[in-house]
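Posting for a labmate who doesn't have an account.
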Amino acid sequence: MADRVPIDLSDLRERVESARTDVWWKELSLSKKVRMLVMERLQELELQRQAPKSITEVAQQNREILQQRMNPSRVDELAAGDTPTEVDLVRIAYILDMDEDFLHRLKESQEKGAEE
Protein backbone atom coordinates (compact mmCIF):
# COMPACT_ATOMS: atom_id res chain seq x y z
CA MET A 1 0.00 0.00 0.00
CA ALA A 2 1.33 3.42 -0.92
CA ASP A 3 2.23 5.84 1.86
CA ARG A 4 1.57 8.80 -0.38
CA VAL A 5 -1.78 9.22 -2.06
CA PRO A 6 -3.22 12.04 -4.15
CA ILE A 7 -6.30 13.61 -2.56
CA ASP A 8 -8.65 16.14 -4.13
CA LEU A 9 -8.90 18.98 -1.61
CA SER A 10 -10.45 21.54 -3.92
CA ASP A 11 -13.65 21.74 -1.89
CA LEU A 12 -11.81 21.53 1.45
CA ARG A 13 -8.92 23.94 0.97
CA GLU A 14 -10.65 26.93 2.55
CA ARG A 15 -11.86 24.89 5.52
CA VAL A 16 -8.37 23.48 6.11
CA GLU A 17 -6.74 26.89 5.79
CA SER A 18 -9.16 28.44 8.29
CA ALA A 19 -9.18 25.51 10.73
CA ARG A 20 -6.79 27.40 13.01
CA THR A 21 -6.05 31.01 13.74
CA ASP A 22 -2.52 30.45 15.04
CA VAL A 23 0.18 32.47 13.29
CA TRP A 24 2.28 29.37 12.68
CA TRP A 25 -0.66 27.65 10.94
CA LYS A 26 -0.39 30.08 8.04
CA GLU A 27 3.25 29.12 7.59
CA LEU A 28 2.56 25.41 7.07
CA SER A 29 2.02 23.84 3.67
CA LEU A 30 -1.44 22.52 2.85
CA SER A 31 -0.23 18.92 3.05
CA LYS A 32 1.20 19.46 6.55
CA LYS A 33 -2.04 21.10 7.68
CA VAL A 34 -4.09 18.18 6.39
CA ARG A 35 -1.72 15.70 8.02
CA MET A 36 -1.98 17.51 11.37
CA LEU A 37 -5.78 17.60 11.21
CA VAL A 38 -5.96 13.90 10.36
CA MET A 39 -3.55 13.01 13.17
CA GLU A 40 -5.51 15.09 15.70
CA ARG A 41 -8.78 13.47 14.71
CA LEU A 42 -7.26 9.99 14.91
CA GLN A 43 -5.98 10.76 18.42
CA GLU A 44 -9.47 11.91 19.44
CA LEU A 45 -10.99 8.68 18.14
CA GLU A 46 -8.37 6.58 19.93
CA LEU A 47 -9.04 8.42 23.20
CA GLN A 48 -12.78 7.90 22.82
CA ARG A 49 -12.22 4.17 22.47
CA GLN A 50 -10.03 4.19 25.58
CA ALA A 51 -12.40 6.30 27.65
CA PRO A 52 -13.72 4.44 30.68
CA LYS A 53 -17.32 3.26 30.53
CA SER A 54 -17.91 3.21 34.30
CA ILE A 55 -16.58 4.44 37.62
CA THR A 56 -15.47 0.86 38.18
CA GLU A 57 -13.17 1.13 35.15
CA VAL A 58 -11.86 4.51 36.34
CA ALA A 59 -11.01 3.00 39.72
CA GLN A 60 -9.43 -0.09 38.15
CA GLN A 61 -7.34 1.86 35.65
CA ASN A 62 -6.14 4.40 38.24
CA ARG A 63 -6.06 2.24 41.38
CA GLU A 64 -2.50 3.12 42.47
CA ILE A 65 -2.94 6.88 42.06
CA LEU A 66 -6.31 6.88 43.82
CA GLN A 67 -5.09 4.71 46.69
CA GLN A 68 -2.35 7.24 47.43
CA ARG A 69 -4.89 10.01 47.99
CA MET A 70 -8.05 8.16 49.07
CA ASN A 71 -8.86 5.39 51.51
CA PRO A 72 -7.31 2.35 49.77
CA SER A 73 -10.15 0.04 50.83
CA ARG A 74 -12.69 2.48 49.37
CA VAL A 75 -10.79 2.46 46.07
CA ASP A 76 -10.89 -1.36 46.11
CA GLU A 77 -14.65 -1.24 46.70
CA LEU A 78 -15.13 1.14 43.77
CA ALA A 79 -12.92 -1.05 41.57
CA ALA A 80 -15.10 -4.01 42.54
CA GLY A 81 -18.25 -2.19 41.37
CA ASP A 82 -19.53 -0.39 44.47
CA THR A 83 -21.65 2.67 43.73
CA PRO A 84 -19.66 5.87 44.27
CA THR A 85 -20.91 8.59 46.59
CA GLU A 86 -20.92 12.27 45.68
CA VAL A 87 -17.76 12.68 47.77
CA ASP A 88 -16.10 9.82 45.87
CA LEU A 89 -16.86 11.51 42.56
CA VAL A 90 -15.50 14.86 43.73
CA ARG A 91 -12.32 13.23 45.03
CA ILE A 92 -11.77 11.21 41.86
CA ALA A 93 -12.36 14.27 39.68
CA TYR A 94 -9.85 16.27 41.72
CA ILE A 95 -7.18 13.57 41.95
CA LEU A 96 -7.37 12.55 38.28
CA ASP A 97 -8.18 16.02 36.95
CA MET A 98 -11.33 14.67 35.31
CA ASP A 99 -14.55 16.46 34.50
CA GLU A 100 -17.02 15.92 37.34
CA ASP A 101 -19.99 15.94 34.96
CA PHE A 102 -18.36 13.14 32.98
CA LEU A 103 -17.97 11.10 36.16
CA HIS A 104 -21.64 11.71 37.02
CA ARG A 105 -22.64 10.41 33.58
CA LEU A 106 -20.48 7.32 34.14
CA LYS A 107 -22.14 6.76 37.51
CA GLU A 108 -25.61 7.07 35.97
CA SER A 109 -24.79 4.62 33.19
CA GLN A 110 -23.23 2.24 35.72
CA GLU A 111 -26.40 2.38 37.84
CA LYS A 112 -28.61 1.77 34.78
CA GLY A 113 -26.46 -1.20 33.84
CA ALA A 114 -26.81 -2.64 37.32
CA GLU A 115 -30.61 -2.33 37.14
CA GLU A 116 -30.82 -4.32 33.89
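Reply:
Got it, the C-alpha coordinates are right above this. The chain has a mean pLDDT of 90.
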